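Subject: Interface between my chains keeps coming out wrong

I've been trying for a while to get a sensible model of this assembly. When I model each chain on its own everything looks fine, but I need the whole thing in one frame so I can look at the contacts. Pasting all components below, labels as-is. Any help appreciated, I'm running out of ideas.
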Amino acid sequence: MKIEFISKENGAATLLLKETNPTEMNMLRRLMVNEVPTLAMEDITIIKNNSALYDEVLAHRLGLIVLKTDLESYDLPAECKGKKKGEAVCTKENCPHHTVLLKLKATGPKSVYAEEIESKDKEVKPIHPKTLIVKLLKKQAIEIEATAVMGQGKDHMKFSPGLVYYKGYPKIKIGDIKNAAAVEASCPTKVYEVKNDKLKIADEKRCILCKACVDVSENKIEVQGSNEEFMLTIEPWGQLTPGEMLLKAIDVMDSKLDEFESLIKKI
Ligand code: SF4
Ligand SMILES: [Zn+2]
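Reply #2:
Try treating it as a single job with all components included. I did that and got this:
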């Protein structure tokens, strides 16, 4: 497999992967979405809450707050440095290698945003400070303690580090076109341009394989997504960067293959 960088926009990276196939692409996508771990609030103690939101609604909102995650410092409970020998998962309460304590205290009248959450680890903080948690009226107050833990998207989507999608690299063949301007206008993503009445490709990477141009050209254009080259877009929610997501996914795949190998050797 060969990887080339295409672009980075608003935190999302797009890569071109060559000499691969749909199975490998989907494996990478699933590893990133479901297996790459991040921190999210899991155990929530509501010390005080007389706001308009029920405790469970408040807890749910807190669970979805995106927290910056350092993969060097935190691990899943099953891979935690604090795990005792022979243990399947680390069960140490408030273990600094897989949990972080957070606190939130506010009194109305005011809107309470994620930026008011205090974290025991200054590096673990909400990525989107203006995420609204609750609106408090006069005499309303909340006081909450929460433990964020490392988890995976396969257990709950709040742990998933982002959105990952791919498409076969667009292969476009232009035949004998009589209506260049109409074909150009039919494309929703401005793939074509007309120069001297001739239809040219301005940027095939923009193609979303909708085939509107094929219809308008009366099949004088062929559009196919490649089965060997793919454009992979990694759009993080913010816990990790696209590079961290991809590298961790490859690490996870490596350890799964090692486990598979050791199981095969036992047969
Ligand atoms: S398939 Fe759709 S997106 Fe691609 S070039 Fe044709 S009209 Fe544009
Ligand atoms: Zn631990």
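Reply #3:
Confirming on my end. The two ends are 31 Å apart (CA to CA).
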